[in-house]
Amino acid sequence: MLKRAEWDELLQLFTLMKKRRLGYMAGVLGHALSETIIMISLAFIMRDMINAIVEQDMVQLQRSSIAVIGMGIFTGLTFIIFGKLFFHSLFKTLADLRLQLFDHLSAGRVGDIEQYHPGELISRVNSDVDAVSEVFGYQFRQLVFTVLTGICAMIAMMVIDWKVGVVLVIVAVLTAVVNHYYAGKMRVVSDRIQATLGRMSATAMDAVYGSKEVRIYHMQSAQQDNYEKSNGKWLDNTKENSGIRAKLELANFSLKILNFSGMLVLGAILMAMGVTPLGEIIAMIQLLTALNMMFRELGGLVAYLQKSLAGAKRIFELFALPGELTDKQQPEEPDLSQPVIAVKGLSFAYPAGEAVIRDVSFAVQQGQTVAIVGPSGSGKSTLMKLLMGLYAPSEGSIAAYGRESRQLDVDSWRQHFSFIPQDSFLFSNTVKANLSYGRSGCAMADIELAAERSGCSGFIAQLPNGYESQITEGGGNVSGGQKQRLAIARALVKDAEVLIMDEPTASLDARTEAEIQAELDELLQQKTAIVIAHRLKTIRNVDQIFVLVDGKLVEHGDHDTLMRSQGAYFDLVMQSDQEEVVVA
Ligand SMILES: Nc1ncnc2c1ncn2[C@@H]1O[C@H](COP(=O)(O)OP(=O)(O)OP(=O)(O)O)[C@@H](O)[C@H]1O
């Protein structure tokens, strides 16, 4: 049976139903009770009917026939009422749960969500909701029904003829022991099957996602071998499982025959001796079905419920991820005499890690373009995420026009920024929707102007439906350059005070890079911008360069000043020039 901890988990799972709990339980109990009443009463009605036929008692026969019709009406009504209650509560719970999870994860902290692989998180959400659906949609209801009908059938048997009842219960217990034995064996093998399937799907995913690497590094045959081996193991385990299942079915069938034929022989003897009438024997056979079902199915049902509970309870881990803070006190009015962005004594460490940003301070004035440079791993991307409020500072502050980020809710804070990453994400939606993501409902003229300035109006005009053309998942139907141009246009449409760029031309070919860089240089003249630069030739003309080494700002100034001082920036430029010579 279920362990104490599993009962607690089941009870905790019921909290997900919220106010639908009452309707659901009424549906489950109503359905189980009405089926039990029908099964037990049918046994008694059959007993009376058969005894009436044997004794040619027409009045009793009539009464029993009316009872059968009454039973039919009762069945129809209860099935409709309790079925509706059950399914309504179940489906509404599942719909609510999906919505709550979506909302919760959408409002989750980026740092927490980054702990998961994206595919893993999505499959976690789907499989956890499926597990909840299994528990509430089938297993719990079936468990209540099986136990209730089984116990009531046992009591009814004892009422009809306790001696025969005892014999039948003994055979039913034997059925349970046999089922328990084989269910244990099957569970071990099916765990092995699941593990093999998991390995197979990982190999298949590697083959699809890493198709280029697989070919270039000649890994096809090694991967095929791997897959073949796992497939072979799956087949062996499946055969073993089928063998155990066949034995279980044989044992169950034999016990059923033994039970029924035993019951018939016993019944015939008792009838011949005039101890038990035929009606009682038939009623016992009818009740036997419910009794057998309880002892045969209980073990399997509990095992399935335990397995689903293990998945369903993980949903609470997702709900336990804290959300971003959105309830802030009334902020002060922005002070336009202050710098657009002022960072003071900023430090940050990832959970359970050392500080990767250490005591960083700098300011960006209206209309300036500043660049953050530094060796790989020095903390540039982390600093950018801190600026955009994706992580909260461990120490220090970030302010826009004198208003600290912690004074504002995250949404208001992020109003200050547009962002163009190295590899932009396009949503599965129209071009127009993708461009107006940061300012829904904005005028078409603004979208067209932004597209014009970012150099993407030409290719949009060539798309079959222009701005209404559909972008496929992740931007699969546009080139890398077009994708980045659309991202630049999206940032222009939002028209925030500060444009943050994480080297948007990094993943493009040299020609497209040069074209887009020229367009960006022009755009930057009219904006306040912070550029994260991994390659230094793109930032020679910016107003200020901040050099980050091991999370610390070690230098700042314009390109010429920093080159003259021959410090960390000078070393980086020399290194990057050498790399370009080698690449060229
Ligand atoms: N999600 C994370 N969890 C834990 N540590 C992280 C995480 N992201 C980055 N780091 C660590 O923080 C440090 C700074 O990384 P960051 O990505 O900010 O550097 P970067 O200067 O942008 O590097 P690159 O130029 O190579 O992109 C590195 O040591 C990195 O390993």
From TrEMBL:
Gene3D superfamilies: ABC transporter type 1, transmembrane domain (1.20.1560.10), P-loop containing nucleotide triphosphate hydrolases (3.40.50.300). Signal peptide: none annotated. Its main location: membrane. Pfam families: ABC_membrane (PF00664), ABC_tran (PF00005). InterPro entries: AAA+_ATPase, ABC1_TM_dom, ABC1_TM_sf, ABC_transporter-like_ATP-bd, ABC_transporter-like_CS, P-loop_NTPase, Type_1_exporter. It is found in: Cell membrane. Residues 341-575 form the ABC transporter domain. The chain crosses the membrane at residues 21-46, 66-87, 143-160, 166-183, 257-275. Residues 32-307 form the ABC transmembrane type-1 domain. One of its GO terms (molecular function) is ABC-type oligopeptide transporter activity. One of its GO terms (cellular component) is plasma membrane. Keywords: ATP-binding, Cell membrane, Membrane, Nucleotide-binding, Transmembrane, Transmembrane helix, Transport. It is a multi-pass membrane protein. PANTHER family: ATP-BINDING CASSETTE SUB-FAMILY B MEMBER 10, MITOCHONDRIAL, ATP-DEPENDENT PERMEASE MDL1, MITOCHONDRIAL. This is ABC transporter ATP-binding protein.
